[in-house]
Amino acid sequence: MDVFPIPCLHDNYAYLLVCSQTQAAAVVDPSEAEPVQAELEKRGLALATILNTHHHWDHTAGNEALLAAMPQLAVLGHESDRGRIPGQTRFLADGDSIQLGQVSGT
User: N or C, where is the chain less crowded by C-beta within 10 Å?
Assistant: First the structure.
């Protein structure tokens, strides 16, 4: 898996995760959509998943704009953040597994 930091806001980062074998891409904590979209375009990637570590705005503020551009996105976050992460589609619990391309983990 390749990991690319994406500068957001004035002092924050989102992280683009890319499966080396399939080029499946996910973004972790997109506080802004524009820098994420620019990085995807630069690398010729299509985003499949948003991973939010928690509900704070500086980790989720880009969700709605990314979903508006790519409504098929899965949005993952912890089940305790139900109703607090914009667009959340999967509610993770301790020990759940996620997969990105050929990479999986808990």
Answer: C
